[in-house]
Specification:
The protein has 299 residues and is of the alpha/beta class. Helix content is 45%, strand content 9%. The chain binds iron/sulfur cluster.
Length: 299
Protein backbone atom coordinates (compact mmCIF):
# COMPACT_ATOMS: atom_id res chain seq x y z
CA UNK A 1 0.00 0.00 0.00
CA UNK A 2 2.81 2.43 0.76
CA UNK A 3 4.85 3.51 -2.14
CA UNK A 4 8.20 5.11 -2.72
CA UNK A 5 8.02 8.61 -1.23
CA UNK A 6 9.11 10.34 -4.44
CA UNK A 7 6.16 8.90 -6.37
CA UNK A 8 3.61 10.31 -3.91
CA UNK A 9 1.79 13.61 -4.44
CA UNK A 10 3.71 16.42 -2.67
CA UNK A 11 1.12 16.73 0.11
CA UNK A 12 1.87 13.13 1.18
CA UNK A 13 5.66 13.31 0.99
CA UNK A 14 8.00 13.75 3.96
CA UNK A 15 5.80 11.54 6.12
CA UNK A 16 7.33 10.00 9.24
CA UNK A 17 8.61 6.51 8.51
CA UNK A 18 7.43 4.92 11.73
CA UNK A 19 5.15 1.91 11.79
CA UNK A 20 2.78 3.82 14.02
CA UNK A 21 2.37 6.61 11.49
CA UNK A 22 1.93 4.18 8.61
CA UNK A 23 -0.87 2.50 10.49
CA UNK A 24 -2.47 5.85 11.22
CA UNK A 25 -2.32 6.93 7.60
CA UNK A 26 -3.64 3.58 6.42
CA UNK A 27 -6.52 3.80 8.90
CA UNK A 28 -7.45 7.31 7.80
CA UNK A 29 -7.45 6.37 4.12
CA UNK A 30 -9.40 3.17 4.78
CA UNK A 31 -12.04 4.89 6.92
CA UNK A 32 -12.39 7.76 4.45
CA UNK A 33 -12.97 5.29 1.66
CA UNK A 34 -15.48 3.41 3.80
CA UNK A 35 -17.48 6.60 4.43
CA UNK A 36 -17.43 7.48 0.72
CA UNK A 37 -18.86 4.03 -0.01
CA UNK A 38 -21.25 3.77 2.93
CA UNK A 39 -23.02 6.99 2.00
CA UNK A 40 -22.63 6.76 -1.79
CA UNK A 41 -20.80 10.05 -2.02
CA UNK A 42 -18.89 9.49 -5.24
CA UNK A 43 -20.25 10.14 -8.70
CA UNK A 44 -17.47 9.52 -11.23
CA UNK A 45 -16.58 12.68 -13.13
CA UNK A 46 -17.99 15.03 -10.48
CA UNK A 47 -16.15 18.11 -9.26
CA UNK A 48 -15.87 18.77 -5.51
CA UNK A 49 -15.07 21.92 -3.60
CA UNK A 50 -12.88 20.79 -0.69
CA UNK A 51 -13.01 23.36 2.07
CA UNK A 52 -9.73 24.12 3.79
CA UNK A 53 -9.79 26.27 6.91
CA UNK A 54 -6.18 25.60 7.83
CA UNK A 55 -7.20 23.48 10.83
CA UNK A 56 -5.93 19.93 11.39
CA UNK A 57 -9.17 18.34 10.21
CA UNK A 58 -9.29 20.08 6.86
CA UNK A 59 -5.65 19.21 6.11
CA UNK A 60 -6.38 15.57 6.95
CA UNK A 61 -9.42 15.65 4.67
CA UNK A 62 -7.49 17.11 1.75
CA UNK A 63 -4.59 14.67 2.14
CA UNK A 64 -6.88 11.63 2.40
CA UNK A 65 -8.88 12.63 -0.69
CA UNK A 66 -5.73 13.34 -2.69
CA UNK A 67 -4.30 9.96 -1.71
CA UNK A 68 -7.49 8.17 -2.78
CA UNK A 69 -7.57 10.16 -6.01
CA UNK A 70 -3.92 9.33 -6.68
CA UNK A 71 -4.60 5.65 -6.09
CA UNK A 72 -7.39 5.75 -8.66
CA UNK A 73 -10.05 5.16 -6.02
CA UNK A 74 -11.70 8.55 -6.20
CA UNK A 75 -12.60 9.49 -9.78
CA UNK A 76 -13.58 13.10 -9.05
CA UNK A 77 -11.97 16.46 -9.67
CA UNK A 78 -10.89 18.24 -6.46
CA UNK A 79 -10.69 22.00 -6.00
CA UNK A 80 -9.38 23.13 -2.59
CA UNK A 81 -10.91 26.33 -1.30
CA UNK A 82 -10.16 28.64 1.58
CA UNK A 83 -12.57 31.36 2.56
CA UNK A 84 -10.69 34.13 4.36
CA UNK A 85 -13.41 35.64 6.55
CA UNK A 86 -11.43 38.70 7.51
CA UNK A 87 -10.66 37.66 11.08
CA UNK A 88 -7.98 39.87 12.60
CA UNK A 89 -4.57 38.26 12.42
CA UNK A 90 -5.58 35.60 9.87
CA UNK A 91 -2.29 34.63 8.17
CA UNK A 92 -3.58 35.13 4.63
CA UNK A 93 -0.45 33.91 2.86
CA UNK A 94 -0.12 30.53 4.62
CA UNK A 95 -2.71 28.54 2.66
CA UNK A 96 -2.03 29.96 -0.83
CA UNK A 97 1.67 29.25 -0.36
CA UNK A 98 1.03 25.77 0.99
CA UNK A 99 -1.41 24.81 -1.77
CA UNK A 100 0.87 26.19 -4.49
CA UNK A 101 3.85 24.31 -3.06
CA UNK A 102 1.78 21.12 -2.88
CA UNK A 103 0.56 21.61 -6.45
CA UNK A 104 -3.05 21.42 -5.35
CA UNK A 105 -5.58 23.25 -7.58
CA UNK A 106 -7.21 25.87 -5.38
CA UNK A 107 -9.21 29.03 -5.02
CA UNK A 108 -8.71 31.53 -2.21
CA UNK A 109 -11.63 33.83 -1.56
CA UNK A 110 -11.68 36.88 0.69
CA UNK A 111 -15.01 37.84 2.19
CA UNK A 112 -15.16 39.92 5.34
CA UNK A 113 -17.96 38.16 7.20
CA UNK A 114 -16.15 38.92 10.48
CA UNK A 115 -17.31 42.57 10.40
CA UNK A 116 -20.91 41.50 9.74
CA UNK A 117 -20.80 39.10 12.68
CA UNK A 118 -19.30 41.71 15.02
CA UNK A 119 -21.91 44.19 13.89
CA UNK A 120 -24.95 41.93 14.23
CA UNK A 121 -24.26 39.70 17.24
CA UNK A 122 -24.96 41.34 20.62
CA UNK A 123 -22.08 41.48 23.08
CA UNK A 124 -21.68 38.39 25.22
CA UNK A 125 -23.32 36.07 22.67
CA UNK A 126 -21.22 33.60 20.67
CA UNK A 127 -20.57 34.37 17.04
CA UNK A 128 -20.50 30.86 15.68
CA UNK A 129 -24.09 30.45 14.46
CA UNK A 130 -24.09 33.55 12.24
CA UNK A 131 -20.45 33.10 11.25
CA UNK A 132 -21.08 29.52 10.09
CA UNK A 133 -24.22 30.52 8.20
CA UNK A 134 -22.39 33.26 6.32
CA UNK A 135 -19.47 30.95 5.61
CA UNK A 136 -21.79 28.24 4.31
CA UNK A 137 -23.59 30.70 2.02
CA UNK A 138 -20.30 31.84 0.51
CA UNK A 139 -19.07 28.29 0.04
CA UNK A 140 -22.28 27.37 -1.79
CA UNK A 141 -21.84 30.39 -4.04
CA UNK A 142 -18.23 29.47 -4.82
CA UNK A 143 -19.19 25.84 -5.50
CA UNK A 144 -21.81 26.99 -8.01
CA UNK A 145 -19.38 29.39 -9.67
CA UNK A 146 -16.82 26.60 -9.97
CA UNK A 147 -19.26 24.03 -11.36
CA UNK A 148 -18.93 21.80 -8.29
CA UNK A 149 -21.71 19.44 -7.26
CA UNK A 150 -20.51 19.10 -3.67
CA UNK A 151 -19.08 21.14 -0.83
CA UNK A 152 -16.78 18.82 1.10
CA UNK A 153 -16.14 19.52 4.79
CA UNK A 154 -13.62 18.21 7.33
CA UNK A 155 -16.05 17.37 10.13
CA UNK A 156 -15.09 14.13 11.85
CA UNK A 157 -16.75 11.55 14.11
CA UNK A 158 -16.39 13.65 17.25
CA UNK A 159 -17.93 16.75 15.63
CA UNK A 160 -20.87 14.56 14.64
CA UNK A 161 -21.25 13.17 18.16
CA UNK A 162 -20.99 16.58 19.83
CA UNK A 163 -23.62 18.02 17.51
CA UNK A 164 -25.89 15.07 18.22
CA UNK A 165 -25.74 15.68 21.97
CA UNK A 166 -26.06 19.45 21.53
CA UNK A 167 -29.26 18.90 19.58
CA UNK A 168 -30.59 16.44 22.11
CA UNK A 169 -29.71 18.41 25.24
CA UNK A 170 -30.47 21.90 24.00
CA UNK A 171 -32.53 21.56 20.83
CA UNK A 172 -34.92 18.80 21.87
CA UNK A 173 -34.35 16.70 18.76
CA UNK A 174 -32.36 13.68 17.65
CA UNK A 175 -30.29 14.98 14.76
CA UNK A 176 -26.71 15.69 13.83
CA UNK A 177 -24.58 16.72 10.88
CA UNK A 178 -24.94 13.76 8.52
CA UNK A 179 -22.14 12.41 6.34
CA UNK A 180 -24.13 13.35 3.23
CA UNK A 181 -26.75 16.04 2.91
CA UNK A 182 -28.56 17.90 0.16
CA UNK A 183 -28.61 21.67 0.68
CA UNK A 184 -31.91 23.50 1.05
CA UNK A 185 -31.94 24.60 -2.59
CA UNK A 186 -31.39 20.99 -3.63
CA UNK A 187 -28.53 21.79 -6.02
CA UNK A 188 -25.48 20.89 -3.91
CA UNK A 189 -24.38 18.00 -1.75
CA UNK A 190 -22.62 18.63 1.54
CA UNK A 191 -20.22 15.75 2.16
CA UNK A 192 -18.26 14.75 5.27
CA UNK A 193 -15.87 11.98 4.24
CA UNK A 194 -14.09 12.02 7.65
CA UNK A 195 -17.31 10.95 9.38
CA UNK A 196 -15.79 7.68 10.63
CA UNK A 197 -12.52 9.22 11.83
CA UNK A 198 -11.74 10.43 15.33
CA UNK A 199 -10.54 13.93 16.10
CA UNK A 200 -7.46 12.46 17.77
CA UNK A 201 -6.44 10.72 14.53
CA UNK A 202 -6.85 13.96 12.53
CA UNK A 203 -4.74 15.77 15.08
CA UNK A 204 -2.00 13.13 15.10
CA UNK A 205 -1.91 12.98 11.31
CA UNK A 206 -1.79 16.72 10.58
CA UNK A 207 0.85 17.34 13.25
CA UNK A 208 3.03 14.44 12.13
CA UNK A 209 2.89 15.78 8.56
CA UNK A 210 3.93 19.23 9.79
CA UNK A 211 1.14 20.97 7.94
CA UNK A 212 1.00 24.70 8.76
CA UNK A 213 -1.95 24.60 11.16
CA UNK A 214 -3.79 27.88 11.64
CA UNK A 215 -5.31 28.23 15.12
CA UNK A 216 -9.10 28.43 15.13
CA UNK A 217 -9.49 31.07 17.83
CA UNK A 218 -8.55 34.08 15.75
CA UNK A 219 -12.12 35.31 15.69
CA UNK A 220 -11.95 35.89 19.44
CA UNK A 221 -15.08 33.80 20.02
CA UNK A 222 -14.84 31.31 22.82
CA UNK A 223 -16.58 28.37 21.26
CA UNK A 224 -20.13 28.12 22.56
CA UNK A 225 -20.24 27.22 26.23
CA UNK A 226 -22.79 24.51 25.52
CA UNK A 227 -20.51 22.78 23.03
CA UNK A 228 -17.62 22.93 25.48
CA UNK A 229 -19.80 21.29 28.13
CA UNK A 230 -20.82 18.50 25.78
CA UNK A 231 -17.19 17.99 24.78
CA UNK A 232 -16.14 17.76 28.43
CA UNK A 233 -18.93 15.27 29.11
CA UNK A 234 -17.91 13.04 26.21
CA UNK A 235 -14.24 13.28 27.20
CA UNK A 236 -15.14 12.25 30.73
CA UNK A 237 -17.16 9.26 29.51
CA UNK A 238 -14.31 8.26 27.23
CA UNK A 239 -11.80 8.51 30.08
CA UNK A 240 -13.93 6.30 32.32
CA UNK A 241 -14.79 3.81 29.57
CA UNK A 242 -12.33 3.91 26.67
CA UNK A 243 -14.11 3.30 23.37
CA UNK A 244 -17.36 4.90 24.51
CA UNK A 245 -17.27 7.52 21.74
CA UNK A 246 -16.99 4.81 19.09
CA UNK A 247 -19.90 2.88 20.62
CA UNK A 248 -22.02 6.03 20.58
CA UNK A 249 -21.08 6.69 16.96
CA UNK A 250 -22.09 3.14 16.07
CA UNK A 251 -25.46 3.83 17.67
CA UNK A 252 -26.02 6.66 15.18
CA UNK A 253 -25.68 4.07 12.43
CA UNK A 254 -28.04 1.64 14.10
CA UNK A 255 -31.32 3.47 14.61
CA UNK A 256 -34.60 1.72 15.41
CA UNK A 257 -37.51 4.06 14.75
CA UNK A 258 -39.93 1.53 16.27
CA UNK A 259 -38.03 1.81 19.56
CA UNK A 260 -38.11 5.58 19.75
CA UNK A 261 -41.15 7.76 20.30
CA UNK A 262 -41.66 9.79 17.14
CA UNK A 263 -45.08 9.03 15.58
CA UNK A 264 -44.00 10.89 12.44
CA UNK A 265 -41.12 8.46 11.99
CA UNK A 266 -42.83 5.22 12.86
CA UNK A 267 -46.45 4.31 12.25
CA UNK A 268 -47.49 3.15 15.71
CA UNK A 269 -51.13 3.05 14.60
CA UNK A 270 -50.28 0.34 12.10
CA UNK A 271 -48.98 -2.04 14.79
CA UNK A 272 -51.28 -5.05 14.93
CA UNK A 273 -51.37 -7.97 17.24
CA UNK A 274 -50.81 -11.47 15.96
CA UNK A 275 -53.98 -13.39 16.71
CA UNK A 276 -54.13 -17.11 17.24
CA UNK A 277 -52.93 -19.80 19.57
CA UNK A 278 -49.60 -18.89 21.20
CA UNK A 279 -49.59 -15.44 19.64
CA UNK A 280 -49.94 -13.65 22.95
CA UNK A 281 -47.29 -15.77 24.60
CA UNK A 282 -44.88 -15.16 21.73
CA UNK A 283 -45.60 -11.42 21.78
CA UNK A 284 -45.06 -11.24 25.53
CA UNK A 285 -41.78 -13.12 25.24
CA UNK A 286 -40.60 -10.84 22.43
CA UNK A 287 -41.60 -7.79 24.42
CA UNK A 288 -39.66 -9.09 27.42
CA UNK A 289 -36.57 -9.53 25.26
CA UNK A 290 -36.96 -6.00 23.89
CA UNK A 291 -37.13 -4.66 27.43
CA UNK A 292 -33.97 -6.52 28.30
CA UNK A 293 -32.29 -5.04 25.25
CA UNK A 294 -33.35 -1.46 25.78
CA UNK A 295 -31.85 -1.15 29.30
CA UNK A 296 -34.97 0.58 30.48
CA UNK A 297 -35.16 1.88 34.02
CA UNK A 298 -37.54 -0.25 36.13
CA UNK A 299 -40.61 1.63 37.24
S1 LIG B 1 -15.11 29.76 16.15
FE1 LIG B 1 -14.94 31.75 15.15
S2 LIG B 1 -14.50 31.28 13.00
FE2 LIG B 1 -15.30 29.42 13.95
S3 LIG B 1 -17.50 29.49 13.55
FE3 LIG B 1 -17.17 30.41 15.56
S4 LIG B 1 -17.03 32.57 15.13
FE4 LIG B 1 -16.71 31.54 13.20
Amino acid sequence: MFDEPETLPPILRDAPETTEFRKLRKRIVRETRAALDDYTMVRPGARWLVCLSGGKDSYTLLAALIELQWRGLLPVDLLACNLDQGQPGFPATVLPEFLTRMQVPHRIEYKDTYSIVMDKVPQGRTYCALCSRLRRGNLYRIAREEGCEAVVLGHHRDDILETFFMNMFHGGRLATMPPKLLNEDGDLFVLRPLAHISEADCDRFARAMNYPIIPCDLCGSQEGLQRMQVKALLDDWERRTPGRRQVMYRALQNVRPSHLADPALFDFAALTRVAGVGGDIAATAAEGLDNLNDNSTPR
